[in-house]
Design brief:
Length: 163
Amino acid sequence: MSTGARRLAIAILLICISALFTQGLVYGMMSMRPVWYGIGTPLYYMYGSVLTGVALSLLFINITHGFRQQGSMGQAKRHVMRDQLPMIFLVALIGYAFVLAAKITTGLWSPTAGVQIVYQHMVGSPLFWFELLAGLVVPVALMMPRRTRAQPCGAVRSPPFSQ
């Protein structure tokens, strides 16, 4: 393993661990706030961490190879970057969309008093719909066609996470 690849791997590991710890810290602070805390909150944060990790892996590997899949990138790595990792990213995006939909649905029909008001306000905000469109719908649409997925810049155009 080259020095650059080793540094990249260490950077990815540290960023993913820090994202997980940050989300864990937020999750721990949310337990006293019933509006944001629920049975699906740990799943929501864990899925967000997985999605962030896959997105950052795609980004950093593409940066390391100058967004070119020919040349310094070996055949096995090219296959992973063109076929496998973008597909994992797409599946993670779709899974995250389901977790987000479940969280919002649960919030809108929560039995806890007052929680529905917060979620109704959130869903009624144009910023929420912009974030949903720009952070989830557009990346899924970019990653669905194989030709976009196979291009190095196809995955990088997608924001790594939403909310």
